[in-house]
Amino acid sequence: MVDFTDTEEQAAFRTEVREFVAREHPQALADDAIYSVGLGGDQIGAVRGEERRKLSRSWREALVEKGWIAPAWPKEYGGADLSVMEQFILNEVFAEMRATPQRVPDVGSTIMVHGSDEMKSKFLPAMVKGQEVWCQGYSEPGSGSDLASLQTRAVRDGDDYVLNGQKIWTSGAHQAKWMFGLFRTDPDAPKHRGISYLLLSMEAPGITVRPLSQITDAKSFNEVFFEDVHVPARNIIGEENRGWYVGATHLDFERSSIGSAIGIQNTLDDLRDYLLPEEEAGSGRSRLSEPSVRAALADRYIEAETAKLFSYRVISMQNRGDIPNYEASVQKVFTSEMKQRIGNTAVKTQGLWGQLYGREDDFTPMRSKWSQWYLATISETIGAGTSEVQRNVIATRGLGLPRG
Questions:
Q1: Which tens digit of pLDDT belongs to each residue from 20-59?
Q2: Per-residue pLDDT averaged across 89-95, rounded?
Q3: Catalytic residues
Q4: Contact 160/231 with Cβ under 8 angstroms?
Q5: Which of 101, 81, 89 is nearest to 29 (CA)?
Q6: CB–CB of 138/147 below 8 Å?
Q7: For residues 162 and 230, is the Cβ–Cβ distance under 8 A?
Q8: Percent of the chain beyond pLDDT 90?
Q9: What is the model's pLDDT at position 277?
Q10: pLDDT tens digits, one per residue of 143-155
Q11: Burial 48-58 (b: 16+ CB within 10 A, else e)
Q12: How far apart are CA 97 and CA 30, in angstroms?
């Protein structure tokens, strides 16, 4: 059952969040959000460089003071200890008002639950303040959706672990000071049980970071090589060989993807507004006067609303204390494939202009937002678990079908 109404307390909190965003979020960033691809690409708006960093710092400081930079964390660690529904409302309002996302690394939740007091004191305050960049060392060339098959070794040698192997698709590794990752510490154990969760400095000798250019020309991905990298054994989180289960901790602090669903609706509004003006050819007709364009855009709006309802379903389960399983896979498959259809629709409705990619070219629609979106969504059905894997989960856990 899904409840679409706020309680009196939730309605009051929603009002508080709206007033906070209206007061604290820089309007320049909200206005610039129209150009954001929001899919891991480079910033393509008008506010860039030091100006963007200054505005972002101001916004983050306001969130830190409120405790909303890490809303699920306990107050003693700089969070707000918000309930599931309060987190949902917070994310929903932020997305509706196009507030710039500011988050703490996922590893913070893991350290908070499984880390030593020394680790908490060392790492958590810096995460809240945004003073250190972290990257995630999970995927490997042969271990993506089947992450438990990873092979990068961590061999105990006295007071250290010695790492050898490779990680790939490591977002932000070229800027990160620290990595949290999963490494195989027992090659003879069942694949889920021979993995340990380690923290390591990206400045350690033997680490090589090589940038990977994406199809959009963004350069946020990297491959990371480890050659006899020594990591202090005290940097293990949880028990040795139990890292797979430790790594799932941050999932308990994640909520529905309502921000993504509303962000998609905002994107469709941007596309609609772009298509509304009269064509330059002087026909006096808007692109939206074409029945095929209106029909395609209407389909995308219906799908975006459906994605929003999937988010409501997930959050309602979490609020009852249930753990979404195949429901999350349904949401993932639907949303990722919908994003690809939006990219296809956006480019097609612009005709030949939709193929332009020069961000500073006056003829490129909205600083190449739509061509960027089209290319960026190619990976949507691969990252975070391929559509094939998600459909297997839906089939076995949701429909009860036998494994092949």
A1: 999 999 988 888 877 776 554 445 556 667 888 898 899 9
A2: 93
A3: 254
A4: yes
A5: 101
A6: yes
A7: yes
A8: 53
A9: 73
A10: 887 888 999 999 9
A11: eeeebeebbee
A12: 7
- The answer to whether 33 touches 98, Cβ cutoff 8 Å, is yes
User: In this structure, what token pair is assigned to residue 105?
Assistant: 């690394």
Q: Please say whether the beta carbons of 129 and 64 come within 8 A.
A: yes
Contact by Cβ (8 Å): 44, 11: no
**Per-residue confidence at 220, pLDDT binned at 50, 70, 90?**
confident
Pick from 287, 301, 404, 291: nearest CA to 350: 287
Report how far residue 222's alpha carbon sits from residue 40's, in angstroms, rounded to the nearest whole number. 13
Q: Work out the pLDDT band at 124, boundaries 50, 70, 90.
A: very high
Whole-structure pTM value = 0.84
Instruction: Round the CA-based radius of gyration of the chain to a whole number and report it.
Output: 22
CA 348 to chain centre: 27
Q: Are 63 and 292 in contact (CB under 8 A)?
A: no
**N- to C-terminal Cα distance for the chain?**
32
**Does the pLDDT value for residue 247 go beyond 90?**
no
Q: Considering only CA atoms, which of 70, 10, 92, 11 is closest in space to residue 256? A: 92
Q: Distance between CA 136 and CA 132 in Å, rounded?
A: 13
d(CA 135, CA 56): 20
Per-residue pLDDT tens for 281-306? 455 567 788 889 999 999 999 999 99
Contact 233, 160 (CB under 8 A): yes
* Rounded Cα–Cα distance for residues 285 and 294 (Å): 13
Contact (CB, 8 A) for 42 and 115:
no
- How much helix, strand and coil, in percent to the nearest 5, is found in the chain? 50, 15, 35
Q: Which tokens belong to 8?
A: 């009196």
In the chain, the domains with their CATH numbers are 8-106 (1.10.540), 134-242 (2.40.110.10), 256-398 (1.20.140.10)
pLDDT digits (tens, 9 = 90+) for 153-203: 999 999 999 999 999 999 999 999 999 999 999 999 988 899 999 999 999
- Mean pLDDT is highest, among 242-256, 343-357, 358-372, for 343-357
State the burial class of residue 187 (Cβ atoms within 10 Å of its Cβ: 0-12, 13-18, 19+). Answer: exposed
Crossing angle of helices 291-319 and 84-96, in 10° steps, is 160
- Residue 119's identity, in one-letter code, is M
pLDDT at 144: 81
Q: Helices marked H in 67-139 — which ranges?
A: 84-96, 107-114, 117-129
